Structures are given as structure tokens and as C-alpha cells.
Amino acid sequence: MTASDNGLEGFGVFPDELLLEVFQFLPIETLLTCENVCKHWRKLARDTALWRRFVIVYSGKPGQSEVSEKNLEIIRSHGKLIFRLKLQYLYSYQEIESILEKCSNLISIELVMCRLGKEFEEYINRWPNLKKINLKNSLVLTNDDVVINYDHFQQLNFLALSDFGLSPVNCNTLLHCPYLNHILIEKIKNLSSDFVKELIMSKQETLITFHIYGGDSIDDNSLQLLSQCSMLKDLAIIRCENLTDKGLISLVNLRNIEHLQFWNNTNFSELVLLHTMSSPNLKTLESLSLSRIRNISPTIVDVISEYYKNLKFLAVYQCPRIINTDYEKQLKSKFRNIDVVLY
């Protein structure tokens, strides 16, 4: 098959740079078709810049087999051109390795709802140029912790972990990842508060996303340090029992925050909650979760409903002064175009 056979000979007058500009808007299926037009197009369609934008997903979940089989064939035939790979619902670590080994140039590895072996901590070092590591909701097949030295990945900017992969043995390696600005470790327990403070200070000028389990790892000083992160857009603290009004009030200094989650607290007073939630800097929030916060009151929610014009999601899950009250019945009318979670 040639270009002239398809009436495409006119494209020969266009420079390669222009053709590549056109190709960058094509879905992967069309790009693969372009490879079969002629040798020249095959070369252009295999330009690495075009392939860097694709995330190839392979899933072992029933009902997704047709798409996954097509993507598996792409992995087999174009492994060196795959830069972003997402594997999900795979419960055989040998199968995971057999797929990964076909992709030698990965910059993003996502293993979601997968089961990993202890060997993964060394195996992942095959890709030193990784920018993204996502192990959300995955499990380790043995009782041994997976100890990854994250400073091996000097380009890393996104790290999301399940309840393993970060411990006193390797946590300090995060301090030596200069571009790491998205940190999601909300299932990692028992980190020292000193380490968390040092981590926040090391990323204070660049941190964009920070999700952490909290508990004894987070205190008011930590929250004050986070409030000084000028680029912070997404903050989540799942267990914030140790935080008090002193830390909460510092949130008024966040200037670029878009997503905020605080769960589990009985210390925050209604007065300081009201003052904080009334801050102009927080009124631009797109999502807000104040679940299991004892002193969230109807007055505070009224402020949110009146002034938070960008809000698309609100969770006041199990807030005792809201649920099972007459006020709860009014919430749907107050937030007609917003997803509100109460239970």
C-alpha cells in the first residue's frame, strides 16, 4: 500500500514538521494505521515525541479484556515506544514483570490494584528516568516491606503509594528527589513528625500535591509549614486528631489551594473553623472534605454555600452537628449543583 494508492500523494509536499504537528492530534489507533501507509509515514508515526503522550493501559479486570488485549499487542509490537504504562487488577507478579520487561523506556509506571513481589524494589531500578510512580491500592505478596530507594529516580515528580513502600529505612531518600512535587502517601503510617517536617521544608517552593495519613506524623507546626508552600493546590490529611486551632488558622495563608481534605478532629473550635473557612483564599476551592470534624456547624456550611462559587464537591461525612438534624434536609437545596456527601 502506498500514499498514491490512498490518494495521499499530496501530503508529500508538506514538511515532516507539519505532518508531525498533525499526527500529534491523532489517537493511537489512527497513528498505528498511519504506519501502514508508507515507509516514510511509518518512520514519522514512530516518532518518540508522539508516543510520550499516550498512557497504555492493560487490565486484568473482567469486562475490559477486549481493550486490554489490543493494548497488550501494542506493548508487544511497540514496547520501546511506550513511555507511560498503567497495569491494573493483575494478581500474578510474574505476569506484571513479563509485561514490564517489554518496555525499556518507561517514564511512568502505574500499578493499581496489583500484587507485587519483594523483587519489585530492585526491578523498578531498570527505569532510572521515571517521573511517575503510582502503586495505589496494590499489595505486597510477602510480609517483607518493599524498600525502594527513590533518590535513584532523579526525575521523579509524582509518587503515590499504597500502605507499603515508605519506612524509616528509605524515607530520607525522598528528600533527594529535586523535582518531586506530587506526594500521595495517605496510607503510610508511623512516619516520624521530624521527617515529615523536613520533607515539607525541602519542597516548600515546589510542592503541589500533598496527601498524608497524619496521626502522630502531623502536628500544628507541620500545618504551618504547609501553609507556606506557595504552589500547594491539593492538601489532604486523613487523620488530623493532633491538630488544633493554632495549626488550622494558618490555612488562611494558602493562596493557590483548589482541593482540601481534613478528616477526624475534635479539637478545632467552631469560631476558628468559621474564621478559616471565611478566608478569601479558600473560597476558590473546587473540592472540600471536612469529614468527621466535630464542630462543623450549619453556620459554617452556610458560609460555604454562599461564597464558595467554584465548589463542585463537598463532604461533611459524619459531622455530628449536621447529620440527623433538620439542617441536613436543607443541604440538597443549598447545593443544587454540587455533590454533597454525608454518609
TrEMBL record:
A Pfam family: F-box-like
**Keyword Zinc-finger found:** no
Please give the biological process terms from Gene Ontology that the record holds: positive regulation of protein ubiquitination
Keywords in alphabetical order, please: Ubl conjugation pathway
Give the highest taxon in the source lineage: Eukaryota
Q: Does the keyword Transcription apply?
A: no
Task: Give the InterPro entries listed for this entry.
Answer: F-box-like_dom_sf, F-box_dom, Leu-rich_rpt_Cys-con_subtyp, LRR_dom_sf
Q: Which PROSITE patterns match?
A: FBOX
**Coiled-coil region list:** none
Taking every annotated instance into account, which residue ranges of this chain make up the domain F-box?
A: 8-54
Record's PANTHER family?
F-BOX INVOLVED IN POLYQ PATHOGENESIS, ISOFORM A (PTHR20933:SF4), F-BOX ONLY PROTEIN 33 (PTHR20933)
Q: What is this protein called?
A: S-phase kinase-associated protein 2-like
Q: Which organism is it from?
A: Papilio xuthus
Print the organism lineage.
Eukaryota, Metazoa, Ecdysozoa, Arthropoda, Hexapoda
